[in-house]
């Protein structure tokens, strides 16, 4: 019995030792001081090769507080440098020859494409994000009419790390105005590989004169230039084909049912309201875009249900009257309808379906899609008519049911 117990102990110890040998531990660990944390990436094309730009965080500068290190000496919180290569990944590998740290892309917030890259096509970039574990496909994509590097060289007053600030700008725009969407890499890839093979990207550009690429520019109350969101770039078959204005972009947001909040400025309905406006904050909006057949031809019907509140009025109108409120609502409905039709017309002009119309037609009429429309969708889309119906309700008029302009005119006997 004692011998059997002794043998069991030996076998148990051997088993534990074997399991210990099979454990890998932290064989591939990388210390934090060996990593270069990338907050933003830029992609340019010089006609022959890719130029990849990195905005890398300097931990010592940030930990010292607001871009200063020992003795109060000003130091940038980030460093920006570029590498070149025949492929994007090849350009990234060149970073090992000039950086003491391995680039770490898990905290990369935005990737910025130059307009030249967008018009050339950037399938290689999408491939990099889906083929490698480091870069995350949830990063936001932006486009700039100049070079991506110049955008990454700009500082921001209210955000220490510019890449983080760029991400916050597009998130704020999408949430509060719904003019430009926050397009992530995986969303762009899904759109470009979908039925319509089309997508959109927000524009980021440097407004004003000069730039803010030095710390001295942040010492002033007002800067000469700043990073700003602008138009909407339209892409088809992997390449940029044109721009949409901000009004057209908002119309596209209504058609794509992506409006969270929006602001409408509409003129007063009465003759006395010349050059005076009402401002309506849209708080809820829902759009149903439905394909229909009219005399054998494909058409679409868009039904918008929206509600909001009156946030400003410079009109000389008595808001106690139901007919006055009804007039404001009808004016706003016409405004929404107009920008939606304008966006649809611009999409047809660019021969690009960025509204998801192809997917809806495929779902409702699968036989017609397979037999005819899928083979010549661009030709089908540009001839499709759109009918828009908008139902807007102003739920709140604010703290006062009378505009200040109305009260002053009444006191004057107007």
UniProtKB/TrEMBL annotation:
Keywords: Germination, Lipoprotein, Membrane, Palmitate, Signal. Residues 29-204 form the Spore germination protein N-terminal domain. InterPro entries: GerAC_N (IPR057336), Spore_GerAC-like (IPR008844), Spore_GerAC-like_C (IPR046953), Spore_GerAC_C_sf (IPR038501). Residues 232-398 form the Spore germination GerAC-like C-terminal domain. Signal peptide: none annotated. It is found in: Membrane. One of its GO terms (biological process) is spore germination. Pfam families: Spore_GerAC (PF05504), Spore_GerAC_N (PF25198). It is a lipid-anchor. Its main location: membrane. GO terms for cellular component: membrane. Belongs to the GerABKC lipoprotein family. This is Germination protein, Ger(X)C family. It comes from Paenibacillus curdlanolyticus YK9. The lineage of its organism: Bacteria, Bacillati, Bacillota, Bacilli, Bacillales.
């Amino acid at each position: 019995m004692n011998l059997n117990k002794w043998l069991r102990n030996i076998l148990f110890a051997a088993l534990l030792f074997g399991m210990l040998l099979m454990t890998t531990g932290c064989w591939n660990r990388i210390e934090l001081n060996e990593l270069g944390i990338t907050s933003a990436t830029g992609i340019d094309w010089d006609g022959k090769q890719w130029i990849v730009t990195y905005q890398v965080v300097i931990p010592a500068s940030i930990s010292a507080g607001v871009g200063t290190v020992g003795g109060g000496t000003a130091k940038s919180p980030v460093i920006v440098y570029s590498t070149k290569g025949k492929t994007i990944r090849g350009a990234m590998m060149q970073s090992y020859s000039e950086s003491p740290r391995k680039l770490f892309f898990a905290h990369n917030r935005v990737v910025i494409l130059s307009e030249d890259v967008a018009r050339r096509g950037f399938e290689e970039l999408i491939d990099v994000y889906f083929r490698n574990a480091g870069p995350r496909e949830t990063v936001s994509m932006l486009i700039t009419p100049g070079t991506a590097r110049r955008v990454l060289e700009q500082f921001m007053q209210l955000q220490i790390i510019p890449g983080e600030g760029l991400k916050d700008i597009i998130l704020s725009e999408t949430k509060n105005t719904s003019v430009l969407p926050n397009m992530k890499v995986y969303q762009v890839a899904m759109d470009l590989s979908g039925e319509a093979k089309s997508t959109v990207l927000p524009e980021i550009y440097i407004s004003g004169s000069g730039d803010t690429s030095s710390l001295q520019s942040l010492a002033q109350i007002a800067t000469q230039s700043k990073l700003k969101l602008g138009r909407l770039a339209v892409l088809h078959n992997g390449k940029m084909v044109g721009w949409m204005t901000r009004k057209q972009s908002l119309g596209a947001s209504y058609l794509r049912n992506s409006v969270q909040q929006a602001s409408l400025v509409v003129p007063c309905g009465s003759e006395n309201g010349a050059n005076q406006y009402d401002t309506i904050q849209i708080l809820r909006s829902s759009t149903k875009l439905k394909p229909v057949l009219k005399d054998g031809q494909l058409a679409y019907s868009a039904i918008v249900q929206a509600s909001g509140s009156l946030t400003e009025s410079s009109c000389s109108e008595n808001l106690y009257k139901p007919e006055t409120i009804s007039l404001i609502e009808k004016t706003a409905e016409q405004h929404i309808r107009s920008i939606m039709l304008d966006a649809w017309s611009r999409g047809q002009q660019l021969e690009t379906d960025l509204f998801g119309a192809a997917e809806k037609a495929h779902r409702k009429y699968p036989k017609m899609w397979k037999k005819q429309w899928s083979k010549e969708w661009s030709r089908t889309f540009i001839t499709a008519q759109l009918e828009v119906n908008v139902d807007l309700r102003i739920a709140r008029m604010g703290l006062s049911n009378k505009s200040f302009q109305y009260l002053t005119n009444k006191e004057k006997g107007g």
